């Protein structure tokens, strides 16, 4: 409190339109009330029982940290009881497998942060996969660019519909159905094998012993976290999801924010499609990204991001994706079945939303 | 007085630290329309909720039809004969008129199937009694609000209601529809039904009701027959001012009048029109001037403030800033041209509870704080520090979530959000509502100081704040300006007289007014 | 009763929507049927008897009947303001259980799956209606659960249970009456019964009411909204289960992979049929039109030998978006 708070704050762009003279924060420390009788500081601490501290302040521990706890338990269990679990090969395999889901889930987390949802991500992956072989003739990078642009286009349509006022579930359901169809039409319904070293590297290469898909997912996560924390867009996104009328009254570009977030989700889905195609060395529009929207939503919800919007947990989302992957891995390695994993996942999802419900106090 | 249908005796209700109702007693007699009036936060809606079983009273008893009752919820109260009709009619808009009338007690045939033809026939008959002729198969939502209201009333009455509670029933009605409602209330009274009529329109009180109760700050201030009550006396009771006493100082922290001078208006709003709310209000604000909007609740104060900011679409009218007219007008453009608003409903339209104090303060300033898409931390922190200090925002740190702050500090955050944009005009809609005394005084002093620095302020606030804080007062009544007072003309008596003056169309305020 | 006062004043005339709004509303309600007629006409003219032949129409009907069952339940759910993503998995689970239960005869093959499906519906309903969890996530979880259970019962799909060919169920499932498959007749019967329930009973009317404005209004009107919701999800699961049993009877086995994406097809059919996804308004007739439209388009695209069947998805997805655009535009006008 020692810095003299004089002068107009530096960020103000054009002093010219600040015509009012001497609008400087007062230099006195403490609240400004030159003539006013009662500065708040002198009012003894009043109780604010009536204020809505409770609901917002009370954080459901389970919803916020449950995913870490579950992951910890599962990891410990595996370290003790699963032979060959803590091998580099196994860990790498698990991470590579979860990478596409994680990338899609990060986009989904941003969308859910605005209070929306994106069901079309799987189909967008398929479109990206279908486009790759068609444009590989121009080289791998142009093909990838086309695929990613297609993802952006899908997001543009989704975002446009949502900004127009259509419920996100339906708006993106349309492209879930049509997108898969379009991918199949593009590829003539066929699986195409791809022998392209660049794509193969993207899907299966390594840098410093770290698989590229994992590196991509981590980069996306860092970028998403950075955008949320540092970029103006992140603030706008959370404001739109947290209180849309307030965002409108603060003059924020609500529609543009919504459109952008769906475009980001589309682009990330397309990247996941490229990655998957590269790893499989084949473009498979029938199965690429099939049902991934469910895994992604699960990862986000389990990671503690509330479906109502206004809050995004990037690390939680990654952990959520990892948790779901580890459940499957654990179950399989213990000669149980995939089916058991699904049922456990179902129970975890219900627990996660139940915990969120308690937090919202409804 | 007729036998009572429903009696509330010494009802108290506490929410957290605030006493919403303090020993309120009310006696609702058969065949009588009883007006319940009071300003925002007076406790009207809490009282209704106690009567309909939404809230359980902390003290006192409710007797209905002679027996003490304790309802578990609106459905329970409805079964016992207490129906309520809300401002925003709470029916199913997508269902047909007939379905809405009979939902919950649909006629069925011997086979257990819905008797559609009987449903339609009876619905048509019932509505005809209220003078409504409409194809009852049409979805309710396609019909005008007046008809929807009639359906709600018909539903209540045909459910054997003995007491019908109407919560601001005419707020969205056209005059002709309001007339019809008054007629229907007459019919209900003749049937021996008690009516609790919540409104803020004085004309209606005198035209429709026989008895009035005034609530203020959770206490019953006055109850009596309307024919023994004068309009000005009622206004004074609602606003909590003794009619004779007009004080100029000491209640608020506002200082002397500001040097307004003859500067050209920085903001000029012409003939603002918005259906059901504003009928041609014009406002001018000069640099350094505090313009107060006075009037009862629902007179168009908030609506004017919101219209000037572009928060609600206008049907007609124009807003001019610094002599420049704008064709498109919305909050984003308003903010860019230097008009900022702190909305009335902090929770719904103001704070983003999950974001920090820092982010909430800089929310509207984001475009200005951003370089290449990134928020400049230094610039942001400087702004946040300056305003946290200047407004005395008490938070554990700028990173604390706004949802965890007290109401007064939330309000300061919202003020800071707008002040850091360096506006030319600041619109404040009830800036001191629901916050503690200390914060209230600080905000009043701040408004004064800002005006001295040359900021134009459009203020919607309680009467005492308007009287002491404003340089110019525009008195609103039913969405029109009933008068403009300047300087020495400003006084509570004068304002109340303007508010209490009978409606200008001359068709109202006859029978019981003396 | 005295009505003198009220009669004196002139009757209020309802605020009418503009002609265009009404036209658009009409298009929303009957758009699917209209497009269906056009598509059928087009199909008949283009492909003649290969489209209109009894064999082809029968195939369309059989295919449509399973979807119709699922979409009928989905209509109830959506009308009540919810959504049920679990129906595709429930359908698969039901088929598997029917095959598994066929060792105890027709009764086992029918009752076992329906009991389990009813239970899943009950869980959905309780979590959504009573605990007030989001329908989307709850049914997403049961989607996973039911699919998992279906795989568990079949030893991860390795064990195929066969329904004996001489079982009454098999014979009924594969029989034809007057050239129409029995599953089609059953689906139609269920559809008609559902229509009666929805349009002619108190329960049906209250399903509509529950879907108006988050059920808030219905609660204020004293309706048991939670109970309505529970029933709706049970109904949806039971109908998906019935579809699963019929498919199992038709194919004499139960596949755990069946019905993937069927929930989306059903939602699409319901929405295309003019039911608001936000609940509260719509019709079963529209759902029937939506189901037939999806299946006829699919059939026609198959008729064009050169077109991949994927065009069907493109067409129905696009159609879905167009329908909701019309709905949103209508809702906007209404708000103004």
Protein described:
- The complex is a heterotrimer of chains A (362), B (514) and C (336).
- With 362 residues, chain A is mainly α.
- Chain A has helices at residues 53-57, 61-81, 88-113, 121-135, 140-164, 168-186, 197-204, 212-230, 232-242, 244-249, 254-280, 292-302, 314-333, 338-360, and strands at 192-193, 206-207, 210-211, 282-283.
- Chain A has one domain: ABC transporter involved in vitamin B12 uptake, BtuC (Orthogonal Bundle), CATH 1.10.3470.
- Chain A has 14 helices and four strands.
- The two termini of chain A are 41 Å apart.
- Mean pLDDT of chain A is 78; it is low at 1-59.
- Chain B has 514 residues and is α/β, with parallel strands linked by helices.
- In chain B, helix 8 packs across helix 18 (492-500) and helix 14 (377-391) crosses helix 15 (407-419).
- Chain B contains 18 helices and 22 strands.
- Mean pLDDT of chain B is 83; it is low at 243-250 and 504-514.
- In chain B, 57% of the residues are buried.
- Chain C has 336 residues and is mainly alpha-helical.
- Chain C has one domain: Orthogonal Bundle (ABC transporter involved in vitamin B12 uptake, BtuC).
- Chain C is built from 15 helices and two strands.
- In chain C, a hairpin with a 2-residue loop joins strand 1 and strand 2.
- Chain C is globular, with a radius of gyration of 22 Å.
- Chain C starts with a helix and ends with a helix.
- Chains A and B meet through helix 1, helix 9 and helix 10 of A and helix 10, helix 11, helix 13, strand 18 and helix 14 of B.
List the topology elements.
The complex is a heterotrimer of chains A (362), B (514) and C (336).
Chain A: H1 53-57, H2 61-81, H3 88-113, H4 121-135, H5 140-164, H6 168-186, E1 192-193, H7 197-204, E2 206-207, E3 210-211, H8 212-230, H9 232-242, H10 244-249, H11 254-280, E4 282-283, H12 292-302, H13 314-333, H14 338-360
Antiparallel strand pairs in A: 1-4, 2-3
Helix pairs in contact in A: 2-13, 2-14, 3-8, 3-11, 3-12, 3-13, 4-5, 4-6, 4-11, 5-6, 5-11, 7-11, 8-9, 9-11, 12-13, 13-14
Chain B: E1 4-15, E2 18-29, E3 33-37, H1 44-51, E4 59-64, E5 67-69, H2 74-79, E6 82-85, H3 97-102, H4 116-129, H5 145-158, E7 163-167, H6 175-190, E8 194-198, H7 202-208, E9 211-216, E10 219-225, H8 231-239, E11 267-274, E12 278-285, E13 290-294, H9 301-309, E14 316-321, E15 324-325, H10 331-336, E16 339-342, H11 346-350, H12 357-361, H13 366-369, E17 370-371, E18 374-375, H14 377-391, H15 407-419, E19 425-429, H16 437-452, E20 456-460, H17 463-469, E21 472-477, E22 480-486, H18 492-500
Helix pairs in contact in B: 5-6, 8-18, 14-15
Chain C: H1 4-8, H2 19-47, H3 49-52, H4 54-79, H5 87-101, H6 105-130, H7 135-153, H8 168-174, E1 176-177, E2 180-181, H9 182-200, H10 202-210, H11 216-220, H12 225-251, H13 262-272, H14 284-303, H15 310-335
């Amino acid at each position: 409190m020692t810095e003299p708070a004089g002068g107009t704050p530096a960020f103000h762009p054009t002093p010219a339109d600040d015509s009012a003279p001497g609008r400087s924060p007062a230099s006195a420390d403490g609240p400004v009330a030159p003539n006013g009788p009662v500065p708040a500081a002198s009012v003894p601490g009043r109780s604010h029982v009536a204020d809505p501290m409770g609901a917002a302040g009370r954080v459901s521990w389970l919803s916020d940290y449950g995913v870490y706890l579950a992951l910890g338990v599962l990891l410990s269990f595996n370290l003790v009881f699963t032979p060959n679990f803590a091998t580099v090969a196994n860990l790498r395999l698990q991470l590579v497998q979860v990478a596409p889901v994680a990338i899609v889930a990060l986009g989904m987390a941003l969308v859910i942060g605005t209070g929306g949802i994106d069901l079309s991500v799987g189909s967008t992956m398929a479109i990206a996969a279908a486009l790759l072989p068609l444009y590989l003739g121009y080289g791998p990078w142009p093909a990838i660019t086309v695929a990613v642009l297609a993802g952006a286009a899908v997001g543009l349509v989704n975002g446009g519909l949502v900004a127009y006022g259509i419920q996100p579930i339906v708006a993106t359901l349309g492209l879930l159905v049509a997108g898969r169809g379009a991918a199949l039409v593009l590829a003539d319904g066929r699986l195409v094998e791809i022998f392209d070293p660049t794509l193969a590297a993207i899907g299966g290469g390594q840098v410093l012993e770290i698989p590229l898909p994992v590196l991509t997912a981590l980069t996306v996560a860092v970028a998403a976290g950075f955008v949320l924390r540092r970029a103006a867009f992140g603030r706008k996104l959370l404001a739109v999801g947290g209180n849309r009328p307030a965002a409108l009254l603060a003059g924020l570009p609500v529609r543009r924010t919504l459109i952008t977030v769906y475009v980001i989700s589309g682009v990330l889905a397309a990247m996941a499609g490229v990655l998957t195609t590269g790893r499989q060395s084949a473009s498979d529009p029938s199965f690429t990204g099939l049902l991934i929207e469910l895994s992604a939503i699960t990862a986000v919800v389990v990671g503690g991001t509330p479906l109502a919007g206004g809050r995004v947990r990037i690390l939680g989302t990654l952990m959520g994706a990892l948790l779901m992957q580890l459940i499957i891995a654990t179950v399989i390695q213990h000669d149980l079945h995939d089916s058991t994993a699904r049922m456990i996942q179902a129970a975890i999802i219900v627990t996660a939303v139940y915990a969120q419900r308690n937090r919202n106090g409804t | 007085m007729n036998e009572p249908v429903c009696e509330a005796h010494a009802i108290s209700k506490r929410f957290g630290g605030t006493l919403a109702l303090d020993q309120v007693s009310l006696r609702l007699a058969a065949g009588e329309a009883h007006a319940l009036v009071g300003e925002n936060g007076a406790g009207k809606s809490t009282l209704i909720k106690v009567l309909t079983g939404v809230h359980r009273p902390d003290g006192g008893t409710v007797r209905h039809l002679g027996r003490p009752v304790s309802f578990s919820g609106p459905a329970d109260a409805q079964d016992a004969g207490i129906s309520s009709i809300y401002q925003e009619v709470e029916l199913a808009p997508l269902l047909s008129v007939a379905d809405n009338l009979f939902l919950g007690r649909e006629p069925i045939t011997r086979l257990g199937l819905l008797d559609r033809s009987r449903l339609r026939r009876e619905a048509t008959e019932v509505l005809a009694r209220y003078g409504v002729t409409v194809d009852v198969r049409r979805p309710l939502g396609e019909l005008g609000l007046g008809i929807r209201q009639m359906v709600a009333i018909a539903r209540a009455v045909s459910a054997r209601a003995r007491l019908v509670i109407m919560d601001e029933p005419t707020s969205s009605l056209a005059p002709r529809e309001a007339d019809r409602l008054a007629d229907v209330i007459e019919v209900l009274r003749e049937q021996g039904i008690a009516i609790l009529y919540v409104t803020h329109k004085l004309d209606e009180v005198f035209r429709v009701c026989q008895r009035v109760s005034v609530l203020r700050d959770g206490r019953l201030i006055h109850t009596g027959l309307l024919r023994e009550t004068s309009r000005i006396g009622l206004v004074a009771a609602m606003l909590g001012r003794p009619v004779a006493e007009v004080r100029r100082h000491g209640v608020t922290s506002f200082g002397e009048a500001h040097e307004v001078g003859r500067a050209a208006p920085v903001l000029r709003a012409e003939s603002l029109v918005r259906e059901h709310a504003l009928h041609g209000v014009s406002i001018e604000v000069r640099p350094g001037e505090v313009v107060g909007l006075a009037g009862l609740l629902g007179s168009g104060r908030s609506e004017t403030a919101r219209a000037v900011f572009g928060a609600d679409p206008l049907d007609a009218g124009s807003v001019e800033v610094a002599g420049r007219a704008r064709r498109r007008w919305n909050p984003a453009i308003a903010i860019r041209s230097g008009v900022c608003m702190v909305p009335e409903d902090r929770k719904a339209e103001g704070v983003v509870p999950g974001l920090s104090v820092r982010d909430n303060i800089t929310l509207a300033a984001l475009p200005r704080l951003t370089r290449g898409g990134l928020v400049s931390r230094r610039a942001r922190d400087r702004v946040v520090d300056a305003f946290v200090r200047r407004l005395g925002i008490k938070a554990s740190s700028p990173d604390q979530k706004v949802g965890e702050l007290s109401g007064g500090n939330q309000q300061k955050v919202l003020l800071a959000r707008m002040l850091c944009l360096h506006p030319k005009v600041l619109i404040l809609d009830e800036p001191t509502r629901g916050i503690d005394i200390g914060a209230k005084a600080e905000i009043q002093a701040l408004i004064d100081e800002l005006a001295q620095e040359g900021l134009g302020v459009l203020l919607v606030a309680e009467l005492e704040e308007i009287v002491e804080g404003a340089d110019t007062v525009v008195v609103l009544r039913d969405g029109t300006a009933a008068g403009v007072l300047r300087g020495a003309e400003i006084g509570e008596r004068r304002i109340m007289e303007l508010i209490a003056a009978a409606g200008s169309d001359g068709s109202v305020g006859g029978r019981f007014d003396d | 009763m005295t009505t003198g006062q009220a009669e004196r004043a002139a009757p209020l005339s309802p605020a009418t929507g503009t002609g265009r709004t009404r036209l658009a509303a009409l298009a929303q309600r009957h758009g699917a049927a209209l497009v269906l007629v056009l598509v059928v006409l087009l199909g008949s003219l283009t492909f003649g008897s290969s489209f209109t032949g009894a064999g082809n129409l029968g195939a369309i009907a059989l295919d449509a009947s399973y979807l119709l069952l699922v979409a009928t339940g989905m209509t109830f759910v959506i009308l009540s303001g919810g959504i049920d993503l679990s129906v595709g998995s429930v359908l698969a689970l039901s088929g598997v259980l029917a095959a598994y239960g066929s060792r105890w005869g027709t009764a086992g093959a029918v009752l076992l799956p329906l009991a389990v499906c009813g239970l899943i519906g009950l869980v959905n309903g309780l979590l959504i209606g009573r605990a007030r969890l989001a329908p989307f996530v709850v049914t997403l979880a049961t989607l996973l659960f039911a699919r998992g259970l279906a795989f568990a019962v079949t030893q991860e799909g390795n064990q195929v249970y066969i329904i004996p060919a001489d079982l009454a169920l098999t014979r009924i499932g594969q029989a034809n009456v007057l050239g129409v498959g029995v599953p089609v007749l059953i689906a139609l019967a269920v559809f008609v019964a559902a229509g009666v329930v929805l349009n002619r009973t108190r329960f049906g009317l209250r399903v509509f009411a529950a879907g108006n404005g988050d059920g808030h209004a219905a609660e204020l009107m004293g309706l048991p909204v939670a109970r309505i919701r529970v029933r709706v999800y049970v109904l949806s699961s039971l109908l998906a289960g019935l579809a699963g049993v019929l498919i199992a009877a038709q194919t004499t086995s139960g596949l755990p992979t069946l019905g993937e994406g069927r929930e989306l097809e059903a939602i699409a059919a319901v929405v295309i049929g003019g039911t608001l996804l936000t609940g509260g308004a719509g019709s079963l007739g529209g759902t029937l039109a939506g189901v037939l439209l999806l299946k006829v388009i699919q059939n026609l695209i198959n008729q064009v030998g050169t077109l991949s069947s994927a065009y069907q998805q493109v067409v129905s997805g696009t159609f879905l978006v167009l329908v909701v655009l019309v709905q949103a535009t209508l809702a906007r006008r209404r708000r103004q």
